[in-house]
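Next comes a concrete protein, fold included:
___
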Amino acid sequence: MFKSLASRLTALYTLLFMVLSLLVFGVIQYNLKSNLHERIDQEFLGDGREFVEVYQLGGLEALTQAIHLETESEGPDLVFIRLYSADLQTIETSDMKSWTDLPQPAPTFKNLIREQFETIDLAAHSGQARIFYQPLGNGYILQSGTLLRFNEELLANFQHVFFLTFAFVLLIAVPIGFYISRRSLAGIKLVRETADQISRGNLSHKISFHDQAKEVNHLITSINRMQSRIQTLIKELQDVSNNIAHDLRSPVTRIRGLAETTLSGPQSLLEYQGMSGSIIEECDSLVGMINTMLEIAETDAGVTPLIKEPVNISTIIRDVAELYSPVAEDKNIRISLKIIDDPLIISGDRSRLQRAFANLLDNALKFTQREGWIALEAKQENHDVTVRIADSGAGISAKDLPRIWERFYRADSSRSTPGTGLGLSLVQSIILAHDGKINITSTEKAGTQVTVSFNIAKGD
């Protein structure tokens, strides 16, 4: 019966509602009963003071008349008054026909010096009576009492109304509570359905929010983020598989061609050695290509975490420029540096950033003709660190520029230049993994400019 969470929550809230309602009922009934007794006691005290004044002014005769007048006005069936001596002997009473089951005062009331109250049960009246004792002086004690019938009827009516209302509210609250519980848990149902879709291989099904509770929204956001991450990982795996199946076919074909050509006829030892050297070069190129593809996929998917630490971009740019200065000298290309003296600190992985900027400078050197120039600039712009690498090289055509980030894509003008077409893809993956931005502008035969920006590390 209570297998679903909605039914369990409904039962729990119903039980809580019942306990709290009964607690409120008990508190209200106790206070109501106390207030009714307090009202009666205040009336007794007021009448007692009047009887004391009557006795002091007119004596027992005047007091006797006051007793009968008081009971006749209130009703002898409802109230009674008796006058006792110091030894609790009856001196005067009101009409006691309706009070035959009234007990005599306890001996403890002898020599009473102050007002006292008591509540007694009356069998003949099937209820209770409130009794008041008032010392008058000279040892006389006035006893008066009234039935609590009206108070009991009022409390009984209160109980009747309360439990009828309680039952009515409970009958309405249970289905409403169940409906609200179902509505509140609708987000969990969406999460379960999406998890079922994912388990069946459907990764395109996203959870919509539909104004769920904040906690459910957080759960839905986490599930959607996890689903996107799974999609990214699978896409990276598919990309790597596709690249291996298509783009690595050429190196493997060349290796097989070398071996087949060499084995097609009698060859000298030198020719076998040449074939072995060529195959080793192709294998090294193939291994490098595979490693680069895996690094791109792992960086994009976040599988390999970045080892972030405070890094000075100025130092990295200077180190990369110094590393490639011999290549630039061989081609007589002038490299100029424009880097501010203040440190440009970001949070990043030093080795990967070095590789990204090394690839960018390597590309600039490959496609810049002899006697050309390359300009490296690093500075702070607002809250960003900006690095620009500009060259006077061959540039990129307008039709090729949108596709430069694609893996293995090489423009027609660059096919004669050594490379795999993976360099810019790797650079983009590294920059984006650092929450950076990269942009390339280029004009064919007029040079290229690469702009990279990062957020400055907090606290610097």
Remarks:
- The two ends are 62 Å apart (CA to CA).
- Residues 207 and 221 are 8 Å apart (CA to CA).
